[in-house]
Amino acid sequence: MPGPRKTLDHDRNATPMQLRPAGTVMDLERLGSLHPYRLSFMRILLRHVMNERWKIRCETWDLDAEGYGTAIYTIDTPHSRFSFVVFAQHLDSARRSDRVIADQWDMTVTLCAGDVDDAQLQMLRANVPLQEAGRIDARSIVLSRANKSSRNFDYVVGELAAGRQPAPASVARVGYLYRTTAVYGSGKFGMADWQKVRSLYPDFALPFAAEMFTCYMIRQFSLAQADHIARARAPGTAVKMDDGIKRYFGIGNATGLGMAPFLINHPQLIGRWIEVRETALARVIQFGSPTAEKRGYLHCLLQKASLHLREIDTDNELQNSCNAAVIGELEDILGWISSRELFNWAELVEHAAQTLGPETQELINSFLMELYPELSDDLEGTLCIEESLELIPGQSLADAKALIETHYDWALAVDFSRPRSRDVFWYRSMEKSEPRLGRRGVEPGEEKAMPLAIAYDVRQCYDRLCDSIAAEDCRSVAEFAIRFPELRSTLRRVQSLAQSTYGDIHANLLDSDVLPIHLLRCKLSFFGVSKFDPKSRLWVRNTMFQGAPLVDDIGTDFADDWYFPVMPAPRERPLN
What we know:
Elements: H1 22-25, H2 28-31, H3 41-51, E1 55-63, E2 69-76, E3 81-88, E4 107-113, H4 118-127, E5 140-148, H5 153-161, H6 168-174, E6 176-184, H7 194-200, H8 209-233, H9 243-248, E7 250-255, H10 260-265, H11 267-287, H12 292-310, H13 317-338, H14 345-355, H15 358-370, H16 397-407, H17 409-412, E8 424-429, E9 434-439, H18 454-471, H19 477-483, H20 488-497, H21 516-527, E10 530-534, E11 540-544
Parallel strand pairs: 6-7
Antiparallel strand pairs: 1-2, 2-3, 3-4, 4-5, 5-6, 7-11, 8-9, 10-11
Helix pairs in contact: 5-8, 11-15, 12-13, 14-15, 16-18
């Protein structure tokens, strides 16, 4: 049998943590209802940037009157120096696309280690604008690109040039000036790989820290570029964008199916992220004292979240309905809190589980963790894990069968004889270079399907195990794996993940009714993304760093309360 489950050191005076069961947490719909929380990657990153007082300076600003050219920022952290290099170019609006197959963008960028000399800048200028078609060296850590918001950028520049601040309501409708369409790291296209980044650059040693910082700097450049163009266009009347408006601008993002396979292909990492979140929540429920001050703070946070959701602008009716439902349920829970002088967090969570939908439940959970930084922030160093799926060859078939029955009962419960249960397959389009969903028996390419059918694979493995046990033709997993090599990877996964609290997502990804957008939202919640604007069941626009402090705010008091931002009040125009 495998050894004991490998879990986090939950500590807290050795009191066992009462984590929620995997059957609850790993349900696909619930994962698609997660919200950002204290240990989302953007939140962690900005706490380090602000508390460690990183020094970020623009060393080169070689832009023409239309904002095209080169900018280089220098970043000094407690451990290293980095450079953020931007190439901004003219892009015809007809060529502006979120698709990964696009070959031109309004802005292309790279985050590099150290200073950038003339020779390196020349190399970067020749390759960074090409993105996937170019090649850079291991001094670069992240490669990205972004496009202007067709609804916002020109409007904002026009208002500033005319001497007016953009209207907060107009900003709220979009929430960003630029939208990223890809953020690459981990050794792609010649860049430094993850092991190098993690070992040499401790400032970016947590998951996706360098990628999130790159998005933060894209936001910084977008705001500076808008001011620059407005000033060049109308030097006599232009005004600089108000800092309150600037903070309300985030950086947009378009996320499609390309993100979904990551959650399936990295089950131990995803399991760790979930376990960290559940551990922080369990600590709060067990050790957090629900004082009047904490209850009042929670009340304020829930009111802020309600206003935040009201200000989301999307033409997706399903998302609008979901937001409206959460707003209504937040009113209910605020009433429940106000009507009780004394209650503990376990009672609140239980009441939410019994009366509210998963989206509101998880929103409440995120805010409970917000109340007690001392119970969660020490967990940020546990978000990394060395992934290794290992076969246990000496395990008996009976024990392997028991593992599946215990940890994959959700997969065995799927009725694969139902006509629509295997209706789709996942594949990577060679033409478009992105994952797609195909209809089984209708579209070609099933033989090229990506290995994401975990539930079906486990079912196949289980049935074969049962047959072998009954026939007594194999005694151990080693013999079984030799006899049926096509099932070896499934057995390896089952055995390895049985030692984790969480891991596989409890869903049949071959079902015709599967909603891949739940996978996207799950991963984006760990990034710290908000304001979801689904464009279909397959891709979503969203906003990062909206409400976050600016580079100019570094060195000032930092309250870490920028999450779930709400529209700033319009400023009165000064009297002439």
